[in-house]
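Worked problem 6 (solution included).
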Amino acid sequence: MRYAAIDIGSNAVRLLIADIIENNDSVSFKKNTLVRVPLRLGDDAFLQQFISERKATDLVKTMIAFRNLMDVYKVFDYMAFATSAMREAKNGADIVRTMKEQADIDLEIVTGQKEAKIIYTNHAEQNIDKSKNYLYIDVGGGSTELSLFTEGKLEASRSFNIGTIRILDNQDKEETWNEMRDFIRDHTKHFKSINGIGTGGNINKLYRLSEEKNAAPLTFVKLKSLYSYLNSFSLKDRINVLGLNQDRADVIIPACEIYLSVMKWANIKAIYVPSVGLVDGIIQILIEKNFSSND
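Solution. The predicted structure is:
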């Protein structure tokens, strides 16, 4: 059996097709196919609060391709969610209708709070020491989701309109940065130590560049030196010399800045990078939806 997850983000649009594995009482999934298309919807949404006709057309064409892929892979169930860019676009609801008509895909534009919940649905912390405290940090193109867990239980969760595309377009606001700093300090000041869990494409790329091995966490010091190293290259050289994709080479710098700020304010010395994102959380929701209804 296969499920599919579609994530329409501010920087890229993703389709994950996953094979569902039933083993006695447990159900897990294995990634089969991941397709990523860098549409940069945030450039329109954060500057004009509107998705241009050209990008809306590209998005619908991408969804038609995703629908065809899901049909070929014989996907049993799927969910499609859109995040920050579509939240802010005044024509978001029109695009949702067009997508249903032309691609036969039901799309939900989720709130920042729901986005955070989907991300920590990955249960990444299950493989980590439950007695410790963890701050989930998911940095996207338009927003950053933070969720604090203590002893495996959710203590606080919030979404902030601070993201990589938003920073590149100078659409991040000082008061939002201050709100995020105050939220972090208020909710972490009682704890002696907090570990970070980083999710999303940028932290996954940073982790690969760090060359850490055996799922070892990425330290604040290492991330800071990696940021300085990347920043020493021009955008052109980050593409040509370091081999970064064009749509990753620019956003990776503001992504570093967000992660470093959050880690500094929460006094996080190391961040675990379990290589999961929103699409993994969506697959997990599909598993819970379909298998709990079978009980």
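Discussion: Residues 2-112+282-292 form a domain with the Nucleotidyltransferase; domain 5 fold (CATH 3.30.420.40).
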